[in-house]
Design a protein that fits this description.
heterodimer; A: 223 residues; MetI-like fold; B: 256 residues; globular; ATP binding (chain B); amino-acid transport (chain B); membrane (chain B); transport (chain B); nucleotide-binding (chain B)
């Protein structure tokens, strides 16, 4: 049964996991966006090798499961190639950010391509260099298109952080699992509280996504 | 007579298998106003797009102020122009588009001043002053902080003209600038162009369907038909006294 006393017992234990969940999330967000922009721009490059190589990265990471990627980085890489990422933290962050970076790079690429050709032409007519055209005209418009989608992926990344409990990181879900294994009858209360924790963490992200959507609507109303 | 500012020498252009231009020869003198008329699909717009470096000619040369636009010397050989070469020359040319192509994320003022700051390297104060002067000239001094989406079509096109003018090009290209406008807004845009034309110094090439306007503003009118210049001369010669049958039937559709 779900009782108040059980809740007050479980709550502080789960609290211990918040720090890991939040730090993994923040690091994954930063690295994920970084990979997204790098890969997005590489796929638009004139260099064929660069384009193909990034294309391969995107398809491999989109086409395989995040949890298997996580196990690869954590268990397989050190054995196969002697590459040790140094900590479970970086294995987790890299897996999440490489995976979501691959998805989000498609948003970066698509948004840049969807800025109308007339914009490039007008910038050319004003004698801007190709770098200036991107920086002053195309990119600022493309970013506004990226924002709402980026917001959605923020929330998805939060949920993905729960997978790091599987490589032994002590996040919210990890503590939940420990509580459940020590007392199976508490399982409903434990997992209910875990859900509540994730939802509360997601609230600011949901708010941020709304904010991003309204920013993206401003100033770019179609001509 | 002064040297031409723009010369086309036997310029051809194909899109895939479709030959759009089949040998264009053209001279534009400084301050000369030229109108290009002709049926749609005759390649009018392609001519000025090649001059603006938006399309590359298939064959032939375009000379701007003594420089070959699309070719350059490299190690004693003539090769296709690179971006740096194009940039060095196209600063002399400005263009106004049929669909305005204003930058929607910038205010009207920013639309005008961005390029003078970043391309011409003017300082911000000066750039702002020149942009405001130019926007006042086209009658939009009260809209500086508005975004393009808040303006009417005619106002947008006037901003586009101010944005191009403030770069002080030697040749200004107008690509059917009234075609996308509601009929009642055409007048205000033509009025601005007329004003620019009177100012003098700048050469202008107008691709247009406004016959009366062409007659009024242009020193020379070209009738383009099936990829060649079928008729050219002073506005009154071409529009009022030509014997070319295809030109006559083309004009008839505008005069009824």
């Amino acid at each position: 049964m779900i009782t108040i006393s059980a809740i007050s017992e479980i709550f502080p234990v789960l609290m211990q996991g918040i720090k890991i969940t939040v730090t993994v999330l923040l690091a994954s967000i930063v690295c994920g966006y970084l990979f997204a922009f790098i890969a997005g721009f590489c796929r638009l490059s004139n260099n064929v090798i660069l384009r193909k190589f990034t294309g391969l990265y995107v398809e491999v990471f989109r086409g395989t499961s995040l949890i298997v990627q996580l196990f690869w980085l954590y268990y397989a890489l050190p054995i196969l190639f002697g590459i040790d990422l140094g900590s479970d933290f970086w294995a987790g962050v890299l897996a999440i950010s490489l995976n979501y970076g691959a998805y989000m790079s498609e948003i970066v690429r698509g948004s840049i391509l969807s800025v109308s050709k007339g914009q490039t032409e007008a910038a050319t007519a004003l004698n801007m260099s190709s770098f200036q055209r991107m920086r002053l005209v195309i990119f600022p418009q493309a970013v506004r298109m990226m924002l709402p989608e980026f917001g959605n992926y923020l929330i998805q990344m939060l949920k993905a952080t729960s997978l790091v409990s599987l490589i032994g990181m002590t996040d919210i879900l990890y503590y939940g699992d420990i509580l459940r294994s020590s007392n199976l009858s508490q399982a409903p209360t434990v997992y209910l509280l875990v859900l509540v924790f994730y939802f509360i963490l997601a609230l600011p992200l949901i708010f941020l996504t709304r904010k991003m959507e309204s920013i993206s609507k401003k100033g770019v109303a179609s001509e | 007579m002064s040297e031409p500012i723009v010369t086309f020498q036997d310029v051809h252009k194909s899109f895939g298998d479709v030959k759009v231009l089949k040998g264009i020869d053209l001279e534009v003198k400084p301050a000369e106003k030229i109108a290009i008329i002709g049926p749609s699909g005759s390649g009018k717009t392609t001519i000025i797009r090649m001059l603006m470096t938006l399309e590359e000619p298939t064959a032939g040369d375009i000379i701007v102020d003594g420089n070959n636009l699309w070719k350059m010397e490299k190690n004693g050989k003539t090769v296709d122009a690179n971006d740096k070469h194009l940039r060095a020359i196209r600063g002399d040319i400005g263009m106004v588009f049929q669909h305005f192509n204003l930058f929607p994320h910038m205010t009207i003022l920013e639309n005008c001043m961005t390029a003078i700051i970043h391309v011409k390297g003017e300082n911000k104060e000066k750039a702002k002053k020149h942009s405001i002067e130019m926007l006042e000239k086209v009658g939009l001094g009260d809209k500086l902080d508005n975004y393009p989406s808040q303006l009417s079509g005619g106002q947008k096109q006037r901003v586009a003209m101010a944005r191009a003018l403030v770069m002080r090009p030697k040749v200004m290209l107008f690509d059917e600038v009234t075609s996308a406008l509601d009929p009642e807004l055409v007048g205000e845009v033509l009025e601005v162009i007329r004003g620019i034309a009177k100012d003098g110094e700048m050469a202008m090439i107008l691709v247009t369907h406004e016959m009366d306007f062409a007659l009024d503003v242009a020193d020379k009118v070209l009738f383009l038909d099936e990829g060649v210049i079928a008729e050219q001369g002073s506005a009154s010669q071409v529009i009022e006294h030509s014997k070319n049958e295809r030109l006559q039937s083309f004009l008839k559709r505008f005069r009824s």
